[in-house]
Amino acid sequence: xxxxxxxxxxxxxxxxxxxxxxxxxxxxxxxxxxxxxxxxxxxxxxxxxxxxxxxxxxxxxxxxxxxxxxxxxxxxxxxxxxxxxxxxxxxxxxxxxxxxxxxxxxxxxxxxxxxxxxxxxxxxxxxxxxxxxxxxxxxxxxxxxxxxxxxxxxxxxxxxxxxxxxxxxxxxxxxxxxxxxxxxxxxxxxxxxxxxxxxxxxxxxxxxxxxxxxxxxxxxxxxxxxxxxxxxxxxxxxxxxxxxxxxxxxxxxxxxxxxxxxxxxxxxxxxxxxxxxxxxxxxxxxxxxxxxxxxxxxxxxxxxxxxxxxxxxxxxxxxxxxxxxxxxxxxxxxxxxxxxxxxxxxxxxxxxxxxxxxxxxxxxxxxxxxxxxxxxxxxxxxxxxxxxxxxxxxx
Length: 395
Known about the structure:
The protein is α+β, with helices and mostly antiparallel strands. The chain is built from nine helices and 19 strands.
């Protein structure tokens, strides 16, 4: 008896997905609730599990195909198991293999999954794939890896496509959606960016003085992000327009604070959400950020963990960015960009001192946020971060 593998409900407003990868092959043994195929939606990757224990009997949706919620992906033969090859059968197969040995190219092709274009070059130029170091994903050999072995050095004016250095890859559903949303944000919102700088001396000193006790008590390191989340929540409470959004002809002011924290992954930027950030302690914020970041990088985020944000923080500083103009994440109206911390010469009380300085950028939707509010919001964030004691004194 076979059990169907069905595309599950993927979240509100999501009707279809792309088959990213089959994690099992036809004839493979699978356990109940074992991940069997990975789907990619426009928001997150989702693993579909086997309904029962058995053997993967059929695959009806190939990798790269689009499937609808409720659609059929394949089936599992319930209770079946993989039949081992008998000794006699194995000997016969070995004899057949000896009679007609597989070519080296075929053997390497199975191992490295050579694309048709790469295989053609290998055969035409008599290149041994075993001698080539692949630079593609999982060590796959790309056309560009073969250029140096072809006895040909392209001239500066010759198009690279003639020597196989271009490779056309279809955009993933997630990457395509990111591109569309970013372009929609530029087209539909009046985005401006305002800047300020922060002296990080006091936060750095607080972390230095309390990091050991904090980690011992809460089991997590005291990072910068909890300070920034707390400062932004305070500033959003003071300037509610930055936490609002436009819906039709209305401005919706939100009295809750769900903080999106941008995380870079191999598949693109995702923004998991810290819900009710105003109610979280420093340790709870740090723990949730670590948990969400790990889920993002392992493609384990749920749809709910990516929805409902009211404001976003993105940290380009971890990649070395000195300054940037972050783009808002619709339908939100504001995003705060953090950057790297650099020792700079600044004037303090008429004297030049060296201080750890970070540049901050606030991009905002000018349709509902005036310049005065945006600048005041960023100044408020600056005041709190330069003297975090304000958080505890409600100043």
